[in-house]
Amino acid sequence: MSDYIAIIHKDAGSDFDVAFPDFPGCVSAGRTLNEARAMAEEALALHVEGMREQGLALPPPSSREAVMGDRRHREGVAIRVAAPRDEPA
Fold first, then answer.
1. Which among 3, 7, 10, 22 is most buried, taking Cβ atoms within 10 Å?
2. Taking the domains of the chain in order of start, what are their residue ranges?
């Protein structure tokens, strides 16, 4: 099982936004930080499931340092989210 970095960001007056740098387009949100974390797990699970159904390989996880080295992510908080295990056929 691999852990991927999610970036949680919050603007004033908005929900907590979640994005996965290793999976462009895999995003979610939550009203609270705990809800955002839970929604991040669900979003990643659905995204990975879709990739596997299409026969696509998952990218290798980026390091926290690499993700946070990108200035676009510096105002967010990095969390680790476990990718679901590949179920045997």
1. 7
2. 3-82
Alpha helices in 1-89 (DSSP H): 33-53, 64-68
Architecture of domain 3-82: 2-Layer Sandwich (3.30)
- Strands 27-30 vs 16-19: parallel, antiparallel or unpaired: antiparallel
Indicate the helix (H) or strand (E) that contains 18. Answer: strand 16-19
Q: What is the pTM of this model?
A: 0.88
Per-residue pLDDT at 56 exceeds 80: yes
Q: Which residue has the higher pLDDT, 21 or 11?
A: 21
